[in-house]
Write a structure and sequence with these properties.
The complex is a heterodimer of chains A (about 190) and B (about 350).
Chain A lengths: L1 E7 L4 E7 L5 H15 L7 H5 L2 E3 L8 H32 L3 H20 L5 H8 L4 H35 L3 H11 L4
Antiparallel strand pairs in A: 1-2, 1-3
Helix pairs in contact in A: 1-6, 3-6, 3-7, 4-6, 5-6, 6-7
Chain B lengths: L3 E4 L11 H5 L34 H15 L3 E4 L4 H13 L2 H5 L1 E5 L1 H6 L4 H7 L1 E4 L12 E4 L3 H5 L3 H9 L8 H13 L1 H12 L12 H12 L1 H6 L10 H7 E3 L4 H9 L14 H11 L13 H5 L7 E3 L4 E2 L13
Parallel strand pairs in B: 2-3, 2-5, 3-4, 5-6
Antiparallel strand pairs in B: 1-7, 7-8
Classes of the chains: A mainly alpha (about 190), B alpha/beta (about 350).
């Protein structure tokens, strides 16, 4: 039995999928690892490079010794990447956990806020927000603009963490050592 | 022998380092003659016996600190978490600061600050520039002073009172410290370690300028006399500060003054009432007087530093010459077994 780790960072979710034949694993991993490596070579804005990562945890049928060693290394890489992606998720949590609808409404309010602050344009969603929260419309606009700046600052911070450690985990021949280092040198609460 | 300026047991927590369980990542540095420190430290904060004697009310202490900031004539960046301590700093800027000071002050906040105290946003946006505190804090000291609300807990008590109350009830705050503290530490670190830990620090009570009777008294005095230097410099352990000497000069904690420390020694009766909810009541009243947010009087403390530190580099220590020290070298600085 094989347990695959599937990480979808676009939707900020981590899945585990179980397969039953380890012989499928190496080829799939090679392909996916190449894709993740690509993310570290300047493709970090590509949705494709973010979208999938698959790995292996355990195998029921014993593979050849050399293959086992390779799978063990890949398994630790999976564990390390899972920890990294969870950390990134937690970092981004206040902005990542909102629903797509809330995100869309926020975008509308933000657009109105920018227009209001630029030329005093009329508002609709922002007016509602200000009224419900007993705020002045100007303050509501400033708050939306701030929240967007805050979100981008948080995104930048988490992206730097991701780039640094993803590279370490994928390229290192000793991902276990890298994982231990991650646990002791990055503050995780 | 080289000494440390500040250390954290966080990077050592996977080993057998016992005090991590008791006081999390804090590594204490004594400011009194009795020195139960685990590592050799260079004392850079003042010894308590060397404090210049002053008598001021809490408000006067705040006003004096703002006057000091007025005279610095530099851009100020105030790190506001939304919690009680940093909100009192913000209110001090509003209440005692000149228009000129407010114009050169930027408030650093984030979505968590607004979740904790969203009603403050209008006062902030009316009076100050605003930036996200998720930006690298190291950037802000390039041309200005970064002000924090650190050391507020050391003046008032300790966040361990929340653990004490949840474990032993509110009455434990005012009961004699000996049994309560032994129980608290045993709960956190196991019976033997807890007892050893308590015995190691118990002797600090003889040097207190006020009589230590209750569990609350003990936790305050322990925090004030043993944790001050750690809290003062622990920001250096989070993130990579490219120029540590400059950071030590340009990161300034609002409550780090002789006035505030004298206030703390002279006003033990004003720090907490009989209930946990009255902890820091004098500060909450000071805040409400300016903000008029009456609900704030019953606000409970929320930890907020974790949000700033999470995901950032966690160093083991900085030595007295302002170099980072790796965790592998921790035995070089160790005084003895714990």
């Amino acid at each position: 039995m094989l347990n695959y780790l599937y990480v979808d960072l676009l939707s900020q979710r981590i899945f585990r999928v179980t397969f039953y034949d380890h012989r499928f694993v190496p080829a799939m991993l090679d392909g996916v690892l190449g894709m993740v490596s690509g993310a570290n070579l300047g493709m970090s804005n590509s949705n494709l490079s973010w979208s999938k990562y698959k790995g292996i945890y355990t195998s029921g049928e014993a593979p050849p010794i050399l293959e086992q060693s390779r799978l063990d290394t890949l398994a630790v890489r999976c564990e390390a990447l899972e920890m990294l992606y969870k950390t990134i998720y937690l970092l981004r949590k206040p902005y990542a956990e909102v629903s797509p609808l809330e995100t869309e409404i926020f975008k509308l309010k933000l657009r109105e806020a920018k227009a209001l602050l630029a030329d005093g344009s009329e508002t609709e969603y922002l007016s509602d927000y200000a009224r419900i929260n007993e705020m002045d419309i100007q303050q509501a606009a400033q708050k939306m603009v701030f929240l967007e700046k805050d979100r981008l600052a948080l995104l930048r911070q988490s992206e730097l963490l991701k780039l640094e450690w993803e590279r370490n985990f994928i390229r290192s021949e000793n991902p276990k050592q890298q994982l231990d280092q991650f646990r002791t040198t990055v503050y995780l609460g | 022998m080289k000494k440390l300026l500040v250390a954290s047991s966080y990077p050592l927590r996977f080993g057998t380092y016992s005090s991590y369980k008791l006081i999390r990542e804090v590594v204490t540095t004594s400011r009194i003659s009795f020195c139960p420190d685990e590592y050799n430290f260079a004392l850079r904060s003042e010894k308590i016996s060397e404090l210049k004697k002053e008598t001021n009310s809490f408000e006067e202490c705040c006003e004096r600190k703002i006057k000091y900031f007025e005279d610095l004539r530099k851009p100020m960046f105030l790190l506001w978490s939304g919690g009680i301590d940093s909100t009192a700093v913000l209110v001090s800027f509003l209440k005692f600061g000149s228009v000129e000071l407010r114009k050169r002050t930027t408030i650093l906040l984030n979505v968590y600050s607004l979740r904790e105290y969203s009603e403050m946003f209008h006062l902030i946006s009316q009076n100050f520039k605003i930036e996200s505190s998720f930006n690298p804090l190291t950037n802000f000291i390039k041309d200005g002073i970064l002000v924090t609300g650190e050391l507020g807990d050391q003046l008032f008590g300790s966040d361990l009172i929340f653990d004490l109350v949840s474990l032993l009830g509110e009455e434990s705050l005012t009961r004699p410290y000996e049994d309560e503290l032994k129980n608290l530490f045993s709960y956190r670190g196991g019976e033997d370690e807890g007892k050893a830990f308590f015995e190691r620090y118990q002797k600090i009570v003889s040097e207190s300028p006020i009589e230590i009777k209750t569990a609350f008294d003990f936790l305050w005095w322990w925090n004030f006399s043993q944790k001050w230097q750690h809290v003062k410099y622990r920001f250096l352990l989070s993130d990579n500060w490219p120029d540590i000497a400059s950071a030590v000069e340009n990161v300034q904690h609002f409550y780090d003054s002789h006035s505030f420390q004298n206030w703390s020694i002279q006003n033990q009766d004003k720090k907490i009432g009989k209930k946990l909810s009255s902890y820091k009541q004098i500060v909450k009243d000071f805040i409400v007087e300016t903000t008029k947010h009456q609900f704030y009087r019953s606000k409970m403390k929320m930890g907020s530093l974790g949000y700033i530190w999470f995901g950032k580099k966690a160093h083991f220590a900085v030595d007295e010459d302002f170099n980072y020290v790796s965790p592998e070298r921790h035995l070089e600085f160790r005084k003895g077994t714990f």
